[in-house]
């Protein structure tokens, strides 16, 4: 039977159960953030004070009135009164315990599935007379993934962090000869930019399943780059998070000694190339990252075996070369870079060296300086004939900046790749390597890890050997696979981007 609001229920009786205030005083973990816990405790304290006053009033009136009406006024505090206290992020309806759901446009969860599961309705007075609509507290997250080979398509997935289900909900067809090997969102998640074979492409994102192609632009830095007779390919794209919100692209293989900078229109779509900035004729940049202030750009030059530093003009978004440093070893070949939010540490993933190199950023020159500290991305001692069996892939930080994740791939379908996790200090120094786990397959061209943007809890991993997307949970420094979705499409399994 549904438990309705009962105005005859007294607060002292309700508060007799183990409560938020008792839990907070005893140090019990209840799965809420401090602000939410404090709000509940304050609300409960207010209720106890009211109950105390009611009790005193009852004693004072003893012998003066004995009717049920006077008893109700003196000693009974209806639970409905608690609903007047303003709770953070959601509020209780008049029928206490029934939450009014957040605004429909609200897109981020304030309880994880684990936190929701830890809430005990019987032990919390605020939930004692009704059940929380857990589905309204659980988020359905959406991710998009592209392909390495034609025909081009963008695949949208839905992940439920309560049931741990993962499913493909939409295949959006795009120009067939423009498969997206690397994609990223703009600062507002209203546009997707893609490295699309011989072109740079952009798409308007109206919602997870309504993605509209709004333009493609050729690589114009060298006439040979756009030619179908050359192997030059758009390989990486980076969107600025600050005005003027330019988009930065890297060609790869031959004729890739320049980077392309694009302006965007009012809707965020690619508008025109505003700069072709120079590296060197032998360059092949595969990954870039801005510092937190978006003043300096660091580029991993796989073919040139260097790490480059450029400075961004805050008005135009154009880049000016500052300097470059050679990789520590001729066989390293830097492929990817990540920078700590503190701006003090740069992490450079070496594709051929299969190691993660730690750099500090010089405060005067803003260039990276090698610390001579490296960490393995494949287990030491495993067979690696001529150093050609493995090639490392990407490195990313968790949203909190407390962890770093990196992956490597195998060049044989019969040998697995690996995923590594590292613990970071407050400044960004690597304190320890936590794990180096095998991935399910070689990873193919991919094995790209993608942490979600709101929590350290969820990671996506893609594969194009078999073609799938997986979700992993990072909890108590253990990495566990919780969801898997196969996609039988040519070239499927490039990087995953989290929409919400």
UniProtKB/TrEMBL annotation:
Signal peptide (residue range): none
MF terms (GO), sorted A to Z: 6-phosphogluconolactonase activity
A Pfam family reported for this protein in Swiss-Prot or TrEMBL: Lactonase
Biased composition (Low complexity): 54-65
Annotated region described as Disordered, given as residue ranges: 54-74
InterPro entries: Cycloisomerase_2 (IPR050282), Lactonase_7-beta_prop (IPR019405), WD40/YVTN_repeat-like_dom_sf (IPR015943)
Family, per entry: Belongs to the cycloisomerase 2 family.
Protein's name according to its UniProt entry: Carboxy-cis,cis-muconate cyclase
Organism: Cudoniella acicularis
Upper classification of the organism: Eukaryota, Fungi, Dikarya, Ascomycota, Pezizomycotina
């Amino acid at each position: 039977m549904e438990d309705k609001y009962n105005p005859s229920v007294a607060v002292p009786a309700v508060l007799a159960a183990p409560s938020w205030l008792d839990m907070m005083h005893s140090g019990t973990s209840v799965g809420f953030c401090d602000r939410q816990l404090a709000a509940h405790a304050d609300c409960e304290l207010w209720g106890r004070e009211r109950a105390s006053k009611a009790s005193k009033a009852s004693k004072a009136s003893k012998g003066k009135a004995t009717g049920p009406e006077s008893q109700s006024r003196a000693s009974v505090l209806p639970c409905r009164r608690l609903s007047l206290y303003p709770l953070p992020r959601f509020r209780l309806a008049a029928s206490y315990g029934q939450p009014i759901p957040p605004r429909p446009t609200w897109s981020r969860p304030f309880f994880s599935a684990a936190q929701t599961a830890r809430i005990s309705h019987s032990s919390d007075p605020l939930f004692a007379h009704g059940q929380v609509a857990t589905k309204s507290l659980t988020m359905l997250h959406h991710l998009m993934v592209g392909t390495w080979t034609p025909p081009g398509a963008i695949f949208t997935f839905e992940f439920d962090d309560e049931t741990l289900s993962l499913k493909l909900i939409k295949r959006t067809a795009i120009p067939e000869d423009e498969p997206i090997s690397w994609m990223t969102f703009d600062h507002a998640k209203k546009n997707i930019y893609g490295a699309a074979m011989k072109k740079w492409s952009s798409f308007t994102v109206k919602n997870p399943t309504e993605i509209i192609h709004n333009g493609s632009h050729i690589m114009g830095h060298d006439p040979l780059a756009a030619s179908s007779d050359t192997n030059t390919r758009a390989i990486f794209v980076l969107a600025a998070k600050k005005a003027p919100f330019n988009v930065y692209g890297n060609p790869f293989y031959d004729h890739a000694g320049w980077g392309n900078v694009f302006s965007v229109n009012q809707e965020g779509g690619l508008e025109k190339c505003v700069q072709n900035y120079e590296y060197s004729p032998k360059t092949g940049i595969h990954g870039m990252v801005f510092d937190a202030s978006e003043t300096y750009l660091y580029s991993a030059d796989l073919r040139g075996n260097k790490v480059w530093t450029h400075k961004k003009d805050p008005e135009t978004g154009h880049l000016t070369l500052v300097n470059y440093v050679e990789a520590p070893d001729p066989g390293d070949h830097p492929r990817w870079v990540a920078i700590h939010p503190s701006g003090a540490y740069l992490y450079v993933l070496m594709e051929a060296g299969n190691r993660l190199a730690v750099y500090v950023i010089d405060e005067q020159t803003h260039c990276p300086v090698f610390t001579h500290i490296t960490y393995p991305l494949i287990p030491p001692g495993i067979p690696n004939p001529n150093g050609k069996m493995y090639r490392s892939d990407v490195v990313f930080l968790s949203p909190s900046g407390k962890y770093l994740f990196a992956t490597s791939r195998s060049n044989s379908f019969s040998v697995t790749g690996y995923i590594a996790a590292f613990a970071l200090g407050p400044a960004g120094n690597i304190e320890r390597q936590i794990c180096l786990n095998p991935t399910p397959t070689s990873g193919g061209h991919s094995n790209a890890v993608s942490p979600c943007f709101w929590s350290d809890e969820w990671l996506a991993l893609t594969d194009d050997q078999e073609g799938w997307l997986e979700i992993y949970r990072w909890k108590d420094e253990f990495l566990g696979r919780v969801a898997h979705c196969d996609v039988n499409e040519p070239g499927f399994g490039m990087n995953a981007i989290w929409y919400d």
